[in-house]
Amino acid sequence: MPDVKLTENLMKALQYEWRIYQELLKLAEKKTDVLVRHDTAQLSALTEEEGKLAEQSKQLARVREQYAAKLNEALGLAANASLEEAEKLLSEPQAAQLADIRARLKETVMQLMLRNGINQKLIENALEYINFNLELMAGPAPEASVYGKSGTEISTGGKRSMLDIRY
Hints:
Mean pLDDT: 87
Shape: rod-shaped
Low-confidence stretches: none
Number of strands: 2
CATH architecture: Up-down Bundle
Number of helices: 4
Structural class: mainly alpha
Order of helices and strands: HHHHEE
Helix content: over 70%
Radius of gyration: 28 Å
Pfam family, one: FlgN
Strand order of the largest sheet: 1-2
Organism: Thermoclostridium caenicola
Largest sheet: 2 strands, antiparallel
CATH class: Mainly Alpha
Keywords: Bacterial flagellum biogenesis, Coiled coil
Protein name: FlgN protein
Strand content: under 5%
CATH topology: Methane Monooxygenase Hydroxylase, Chain G, domain 1
């Protein structure tokens, strides 16, 4: 039977990781509002904060993986066995706690994935809008056709764009 302290440490790591993902979810929800309002300054600040939390999450994931590998070893499982397999071999109160925190973490990550999908679509739409406007400004200015006495089209000069681009 594994050391109780080892299982507790794994659950603590999972809880800390869950809290970070909760914070990331809150930031993602704020980011949606910021993207809708086109507030680039706030978007930059949120992205920076998100990066810090993502770095913390990476560190916690490494710690969690170490504890999970040690627990799996103690239970006689392969080091990379899933937590579900470990739950089956743990005593009831520990197995239930581990299942609970794992379910909460999974649910939060799913919500975060959905929110990030929405944010990605908003960013893609904004980039398409910016690209469309740049193409409008960089393209030649529309001009009406001018016809001569013979009925053929007469060129009125070089077509210029709104942007003066020189190479």
